[in-house]
Amino acid sequence: MWLCDPLTDPGTQTGKFSRLSVFRNDSALRPHSVRPHLPWGLMLRHALVGTAAAVFLATSAPSLGFAGDAQASPPELIQRGSRQYGQSCAFCHGPDATGARGPDLVRSTLVAHDVNGNLIGDVIRSGRPDKGMPALALSDDQIKAIAAFLHDRARAGLESGDIPKNYALSKLLTGSAEAGRSYFEGPGGCKRCHSPTGDLKGIARKLAPLELEARMLYPGEAKKKATVSLPSGEQVQGNLVHMDDFSVGIRDSSGWYHSYSRDNVRVEVDDPLETHRALLRRITQKEFHDLFAYLESLK
């Protein structure tokens, strides 16, 4: 086993590392070099950010052959299309084309593959009666202008890297709060760790809607606890600092850092977020939106 003084341990951000502070006091355990490691939460955050970026790109750009990329419409055509869209389409698809009663057109696959209104025009002229969209008697020029406006909106969406914190709640609140409460108290198992009158009391006032939804997906860091059982039967407990196939390092309640070869010890890890991650792996999209609606009701 290796011991490091809390003030000189490489895992202590404020301390200065000195090799003289490290010594071996158990010849039965294989020595290894003590080195700092990224905290588990930081590595997870990097992984999730990379995953979130990949998912965002995959869902925002339906294909690499985005037809709108090759279409550069004159500003006056886009402005005319904006006015025509406002008169003919905004009631159902929202003033900014991100959806209302009708679907989001900024991220529409049809809009992404449309060229100068060839696909958009068919839908406008024929409508979609099965989905409640009536046919509209618009001219070719009017349809071309609307298509130019939608392509401009889609392009602006792809080029924008910022999402405002005051993102409209109405665009996120698509689930049922009552169904969310049933999921929270039932199959979701959320009430085993959380309480609407305890840690979640007033959560909707404390966090903006977009921040609350992000917190559900990425709950942040939580320290893992580890119990290391030595060959002698002694157990050492503390916060898990590092673990791989060869070694495990923990910091006990006194601040001392302990490192062991995994060949000679048994390790039990208590991860407070494992239940949350397991839930994210099985929760459906509907269940997630219902759960968000319930949390958003906790004012």
Descriptive notes:
Helix content is 39%, strand content 11%. It contains 12 helices and 7 strands. With 299 residues, the protein is α+β, with helices and mostly antiparallel strands. The relative contact order is 0.13. Strand 4 (235-243) and strand 5 (247-251) form a beta hairpin.
Structural class: alpha+beta
CATH architecture of the domain at 67-159: Orthogonal Bundle
Task: Supply the CATH class of the domain at 67-159.
Answer: Mainly Alpha
Query: Biggest sheet: strands side by side, in what order?
Result: 2-1-6-5-4-3-7
Shape: elongated
Specify the helix fraction band: 25-40%
Question: Taking all residues together, what is the mean pLDDT?
Answer: 79
Radius of gyration: 28 Å
Extract low-pLDDT stretches: 1-70
Give the amount of beta strand, in percent: 5-15%
> How many strand elements?
7
Number of helices: 12
> How far apart are the termini?
51 Å
Give me the CATH superfamily of the domain at 67-159: Cytochrome c-like domain
CATH topology-level name of the domain at 67-159: Cytochrome Bc1 Complex, Chain D, domain 2
List the helices and strands and how they pair.
Elements: E1 2-4, E2 23-24, H1 40-60, H2 75-88, H3 90-93, H4 109-113, H5 120-126, H6 140-159, H7 169-172, H8 177-185, H9 203-206, H10 209-217, E3 225-229, E4 235-243, E5 247-251, E6 257-261, E7 266-270, H11 274-282, H12 285-296
Antiparallel strand pairs: 1-2, 1-6, 3-4, 3-7, 4-5, 5-6
What key phrases describe this protein's structure?
299 residues, alpha+beta, Cytochrome Bc1 Complex, Chain D, domain 2, seven-stranded antiparallel beta sheet, 39% helix, disordered N terminus
